[in-house]
Amino acid sequence: MALEMRTVCERCDAALAPEGEARICSFECTFCVSCADGMDRVCPNCGGELVARPRRVTA
After folding, report:
1. Which of 4, 7, 36, 56 lies deepest, with the highest CB count within 10 Å?
2. Average pLDDT, the chain
3. How many domains, the chain?
4. Based on the number of CB atoms within 10 Å of its own CB, is 36 exposed (0-12), middle (13-18) or buried (19 or more)?
5. Residues 29-45: tens digit of each pLDDT
6. Which residues on neighbouring strands pair with residue 52, listed in sequence order?
7. CATH code for the domain of 41
C-alpha cells in the first residue's frame, strides 16, 4: 500500500509537491515543515509524531 501524497498542508493550505519536503504522521496527516515545527512536530489530529515524508521522484 502506497502513501497518499497529499498536495496541501492541512493547517495552512500551502502547496506540497511530491518531491518537496513535508511532515507526516502514521495516519498520513500531512503538514508543511513550517507548520509541523510550529506544532513541535506533534500531529494535532491524533497526537502522533510528525516525521519527514518520503519524497517521490517523477520519472
Report:
1. 36
2. 93
3. 1
4. buried
5. 999 999 999 999 999 99
6. 23
7. 3.30.40
Query: Which residues, including other chains, have CB under 8 Å from residue 16's CB and lie 6 or more apart?
Result: 6, 7, 8, 9, 22, 30, 32
Note whether 28 and 46 are within 8 A (CB).
Answer: no
Instruction: Quote the domain boundaries for residue 11.
Output: 1-59
SS (H, E, C) 8-46: ECCCCCCECCCCCCCEECCCCCEECHHHHHHCCCECCCC
10-21: pLDDT as tens digits: 999 999 998 899
The residue written with cell numbers 502506497 in the block is: 2
CA distance 36 to 58: 25
